[in-house]
Design a protein that fits this description.
Length: 295
């Protein structure tokens, strides 16, 4: 484990991934985040440098893992003109990008890194904060297969399931569909529970029935009780749900498809964000449909 590893983006997911690799004997050399106190706190915990810029992370590292929020952030950290971007020290470096952003953003990152003499891989996560800390992420990877093999030992340390999907952008397309369907399921569950509540049904009983019938789903297991109890501690935010449903709808438009359920779900999450509730967990979509919760 001689590779020096750096992180750009150390929110809850990135920070827990760094902790996991540190626990497993990897050398974490530098971390950086837009929110400097997050990087400073984690750097102190892991005994590494709190870098001021992404360029500094790349300078100190052989492998850089990025976990940023959106296309704009990806474009910024892989900017061809910004002297603080990762590309300033990309030669002979490996970049692994975990962000759920558009396929185009991942394709662009690969092209820019390769033009500077580095290698690049997308590794999309279908998991949450706990799995990041435990090293049990479900990872879908896109890029050149040789780069996937190069990154495999690090990725295996972070995951319990690791898949190579195909060229750059393919994993991002797959992840967009995963989150589109998850978000639709979450919004549908919220409506089912809210209607049950409005009709006077016991929601604990109703969740049990759902779980033993065709209404069963993963989000029923993760979000059903939280919807009932209005416990929306954030594991995957409503804002991210809106963003990811938007990515899927853009892909659908490019493919010449109309997806009315996905569009309705996107509209619900956008309403939640516009109401100032974007930092609630995705289960917070229930607040829009239960009687008396939100106007």
């Amino acid at each position: 484990m001689t590779s020096r590893i750096g992180f750009v983006g150390v929110g809850r997911m990135g920070a827990n991934m760094a902790r996991r690799l540190k626990d497993k004997g990897y050398a974490i050399t530098a971390v950086q985040d837009r929110h400097a106190p997050s990087a400073e706190s984690l750097a102190k915990e892991l005994s590494c440098e709190a870098a001021i810029t992404p360029a500094r992370v790349a300078e100190l590292s052989d492998v850089v893992l990025t976990v940023v929020t959106d296309d704009a952030a990806m474009d910024e950290i892989f900017s061809e003109t910004n002297p603080s971007s990762l590309l300033c020290h990309a030669k002979d470096k490996l970049f692994i990008n975990f962000a759920t952003v558009s396929p185009e953003a991942h394709i662009k990152a690969e092209a820019r890194v390769e033009a500077k003499g580095g290698t690049n891989l997308e590794a999309l996560m279908a998991s949450s904060i706990t799995q990041a800390r435990e090293g049990t992420l479900y990872l879908m990877c896109g890029g050149k297969e040789s780069v996937f093999e190069q990154a495999k030992s690090i990725l295996e340390t972070l995951s319990s399931k690791l898949l190579y999907i195909g060229p750059a952008g393919h994993a991002a397309k797959t992840k967009a569909l995963v989150n589109m369907i998850m978000n639709c399921n979450t919004a549908a569950l919220a409506e089912g529970l809210s209607l049950g509540d409005a009709m006077g049904l016991d929601l604990t009983m109703l969740r049990e029935v759902f779980g033993e019938t065709g209404a069963a789903s993963r989000v029923l297991e993760t979000d059903g009780e939280d919807m009932q109890n209005r416990d929306h501690e954030c594991y995957f935010s409503a804002a991210h749900a809106a963003k990811d449903s938007g990515i899927a709808l853009n892909l659908a438009q490019s493919a010449g498809l109309e997806l009315p359920l996905a569009k309705a779900t996107f509209d619900q999450y956008r309403r939640l964000v516009e109401a100032g509730k974007g930092e609630l967990d995705k289960s917070g979509v229930a607040e829009l449909v239960f009687k008396g919760r939100m106007k």
